[in-house]
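Q: What would this chain look like folded?
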Amino acid sequence: MDVSIFRYVDSIPENNINFASSAMRGMNPDGLGGADVEEQIAKLYGVQKEQVIVTPSNTFGSFFTLYHLRNKISSMVTITPEYPVFHYQANEIGIKSSMDNRISAEGLDLSPWDVEEKTAYFISNPNNPTGLAWSEESIKSIARETEGNESYLVIDDTFSFFNGSFPRKMETGNTIILGSVSKFFGESGIKMGWIIAGRHIIDDMRELIGLMVPVISNAVKRRGSYLLSNINVYKEYNRKKLEENSRILFENLDEYIIGFKGSIVNAISVEGASTKFSLSLMSEGVSTVPGYYFGSDSLVRVGIGAEDAERTEKGAKIIAKMISEWKR
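A: My prediction, written as C-alpha cells:
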C-alpha cells in the first residue's frame, strides 16, 4: 500500500463521528441476570438446555461450526444476501465455498433449492434487522432434505433475533442455528453468542468446543442474561434509532447508497480509491471502512448504529460534500 495516502490524515479528531462500527450503541446492560443463561436461551427457542452452547460471539460460533463440519462436508454454499465472513472462514479452514445468488431485478427468490450431498448451506440476512427473509415453512422444507444426504443447514439468525421473528423449535434434519446479542443490543462490551442444534450434532460439538473456543466468564453470562430478560426495551430503543439514522442517511446520500433502507451497515459508492477516500473523510472527522478490505475498492462501508441522529446527519453531510469534491 502506498504510504503517501497517510498524508490525508494528520491526526484523528477527538470528536470523530464513528461510522466504522457495525454494531448498535446507546444503551448498556448495566444489571446482572441469572446464572443459567443456557436455560434462558433454550426457553426462547423452545429447545432443551442441552441443545445450547454459549460462545464468545457469533463469529466464534460460525468458525467453530465450520471447523466441526470440515470433515463431514465437501463444500459450503452461502445463500444471498450473504454474510461474507462465512466465505473467509471456510477458505481459512480449506472448505470449498460458493454462492447461490438469489437476488434479481424481480427481488429475492425464496423458493427451496435441491440439497446436494455433504454440503453445508448458510443463510442469513446481513446487517438488516428486518430478519430472515425465508419463512419457517421454507426453512423446514430445506432442513428435511439435509437429514438423508449428510448435509447441513446453518442459520445465522442474529438479525431475525433482533426482530423477534427467529425460528423456534427448529429440530428438523441437520439444522444448526447461530445467534448473538453482540451487534444489535448495546455497546460492544457484551460479546455473547450461541449455537443451537439437535442432540446428535450438539453432543459432538461439545466434546471439541473447549479446545477451540475461550470459556465465557460468569460475569459476561449474567450481563447477557440481564439483556435477554429486558430485550424488548433494548430492541425498541435501537429500532427507533436505526430507523431515524437510516432516514437521515438516505436523505443525504440516496444516489450513492447501494443497499436498502433499514440496514445497520451501508455501502456508499465512491468510484475507486476507497482507502484514500476513507482517510480523507477521517481528516474531516468521520471514520468509515474502506471497501478495499472487502474486495471492492469502489465502495466505503458506513455503519449508522453508533451515533445519535444529530451526529449522523452531520457525518452524512460531510460524506456528501466529500463525494462531490472527489468526483470533480
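Residues 18 and 190 are 19 Å apart (CA to CA).
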